[in-house]
Amino acid sequence: MWIYFYAAHLLGEFIFQSDQFIEQRKNKPIATLIKHVAIHALLMGMASLVIAFANPSVTSATLRSLGQAIFLISISHYVIDYGKMKLSKKMNRVSSQALLFLIDQILHFLSIIFVLHYFTTSEWSFMDNIQVFYGDFGIYEKIAATICVFILATYGAGYFLGILLQNMAPNNELQEGIYRLSDEKTEVKTKYESDGKKETEIITIKTEQYFHDSPAKIGQIIGMLERTLIVILMMIDLPQGLAFLAALKTLTRFKQFEHKQFAEYYLIGTLSSAMIGILLGIVASNIW
């Protein structure tokens, strides 16, 4: 049962939370947080209807218990997000922000698990719900679990990587939409005169390349598509397709690899993204 509520949580956390909504948190944090929690409660209410549809044996008493669970989960969600909001102002390091994001998501997950376990323990046990990741549950649970995997692989991983890599991106911006890649090479040439005298010539070659940046968020979209394809390839048992995917992505940035800082940034981002995609792909393959 918890998988429906967790899918609702991820929808509210990533899909129904726009950039504009996040910006509003800076000016009206409490009001925006209340709206955010209300959206989660509404989505979990819809998840309860899905549970009732998928399980005809669900009684009105169970639905009342789910309503109570939604209320308690909403309160815990508010408390967790409020605590995160306060801590984020004091934790400015990238590693701290990334860790805070992970802790926040883990706490939300655990609150859903334990609250639902408390209110529905007479009909669904904690261990029975875990079986959804071992392929022993019904089609609706598997669909909900797969939705969770793809949301985490796209929006969730993208948000996390955005935090993790925010200080690693090359700072080559000249003006909005135009970037510069600079490189410098030193060549040392040695030659000998007829009298045996040695002469050394040092040549420094500096190159600068100017290019227009891609449209806004295009890199984020590419990353989301990349992880989506990785999950799909893992689900259909075609891991060899990962090599083609990596080669295709590399071709689009080949010229920029001459810039060491960009190459390192690209490598860290690509490996991190691929690792997340592969791990979630393994989870998705076990669902089905």
From TrEMBL:
Key words, A-Z: Membrane, Transmembrane, Transmembrane helix
InterPro entries: Phage_phiKZ_Orf197
Coiled-coil ranges (or none): none
Keyword field contains GTP-binding: no
Pfam family, one: DUF3307
Transmembrane region(s): 33-55, 61-79, 99-119, 143-165, 228-246, 266-287
Keyword Cell cycle in annotation: no
Superkingdom to which the source organism belongs: Bacteria
Entry protein name: Putative membrane protein
